[in-house]
Write a structure and sequence with these properties.
This protein is of the alpha+beta class and 157 residues long. The protein has two domains: 33 residues; 115 residues, S-adenosylmethionine decarboxylase (4-Layer Sandwich). Helices cover 37% and strands 31% of the residues. Helix 2 runs antiparallel to helix 3. The longest helix has 21 residues.
Length: 157
């Protein structure tokens, strides 16, 4: 075997080129490659909400929060295909996920820290859901969580 670094660099380049060409031909994997159209495939909001007023969550309880999120899904024209919530055995300490045909909504509560994390994502397959995601998240935050401080990140995918 040769010890010339230029030959090894050329071999690595060829392997990478073959891999990229193979990925582009694969219908399942090519969707992970960067888009050449610059079209946004979805909006993803991830937030940490601090100083939450748990009065609405306390009033609704975990099952009420689950129903509230499902009602928002319907209100904004998204399609819920499944949901799963888990109670941690302490008052209003739970985690939950609503699986959407368009993607998902997740909520995780820490009442002992007055903190809730929220994750809302919807793809833009049949329509542009970017505004829907923003409005749904804003209503969830305003009505249910009422935080004093929010660290939010919006990712355009």
């Amino acid at each position: 075997m040769t010890s010339n670094p230029l030959i090894w660099l050329a071999i690595i380049f060829i392997i990478i080129a073959i891999a990229v060409v193979s990925l582009k031909k694969s219908p399942r994997l090519s969707s992970w490659l960067p888009s050449t159209t610059n079209k946004v495939s979805g909006t993803h909001i991830v937030s940490n909400c601090y100083g939450c007023d748990f009065s609405e969550i306390n009033r609704l309880g975990m099952s009420g929060v689950e129903e509230f999120i499902s009602s928002l899904v319907r209100k904004y024209g998204l399609t819920e295909v499944a949901r799963k919530y888990h109670d941690f055995g302490q008052p209003n300490a739970f985690t939950g996920a609503s699986i959407l045909a368009e993607s998902h909504i997740c909520i995780h509560t820490w009442p002992e820290h007055q903190m809730v994390t929220v994750d809302v994502y919807a793809c833009n397959v049949s329509r542009d859901n970017s505004d829907v995601v923003r409005r749904l998240y804003a209503e969830l935050e305003k009505v249910l969580l009422q935080p004093t401080k929010v660290a939010v990140k919006i990712v355009q995918r």
